[in-house]
Amino acid sequence: MKDAPTRMLLAAATLVGVWIAVYWLWPSSPPPPPITFDEVAVRPDPGPPAPATSPPLTQPPASTSTLGALLEPAPTPEFESIIPPEFEMHIVAAGETIWSIAAAKWGDQNLGGVIARANPLADPRRLRPGQTLLIPKDPRNIQGAPTDATAPAPKPEITEYVVAPGDTLSQIAQRFYGRSSLWTRIRDANPAVINRTGDVRVGVTIIIPPPPE
After folding, report:
1. Which of 11, 23, 68, 179 pairs with 34 at a CA distance of 20 to 30 A?
2. Whole-number Cα distances in Å, 148 to 74, 79, 84, 154, 213
3. Does position 172 have pLDDT exceeding 80, yes or no?
4. 168 or 72, which is more confident?
5. 210 with 140: CB under 8 angstroms?
6. Is the distance from CB of 142 to CB of 136 less than 8 angstroms?
7. How far from 125 is each of 32, 43, 99, 155, 172, CA to CA, in Å?
8. Cβ burial, residue 76 (10 Å; 0-12/13-18/19+)
9. What angle (nearest 5°) sits at the alpha carbon of residue 71, between those of residues 68 and 73?
10. What average pLDDT does the segment 118-138 reach?
11. 133: which strand partners?
């Protein structure tokens, strides 16, 4: 009975020896080749991608018509200048009204409103003796009138005339107005030298007002 354990130990030792022999004597697979850096290609870092660039903006060439419009001089205004109004001083006499003053200055009492517009601070219905008024030399130009540079200079509106021998107001009116019936217009414009009946002395200088519109 004592031989049985001994044989079992010997069998176990034999198996262990066989396993060890097999482990060391069995051919193993060849080791992997060593890693080298000779064949590794080192690539430079490309860095961040370059931003996309848009093509430069180019201005289209100006057309011939556009260049002509740029080089063409600016049109000149229709009226080149303004004729400034001219006034004369008038001292109101006793009994005068704007209508009687207009009749004496321009031969037309209906132009009394022109005197009123030229004197906005004066009451045209209550003129006082000694009051000073501004009388426009041209009743059509109170605040400045435009003038055309190409137009000829305007003719004077009021003409002076020296009465010749044989002249009558009817003949003078016919000569200046083409109508002898307008002699009263000349009479009313010259109350200091022509009486109500139209008698006028030879050699007297009278004013010929502009013809009625």
Report:
1. 23
2. 18, 5, 14, 11, 21
3. yes
4. 168
5. no
6. yes
7. 132, 109, 10, 33, 34
8. exposed
9. 115
10. 88
11. 90
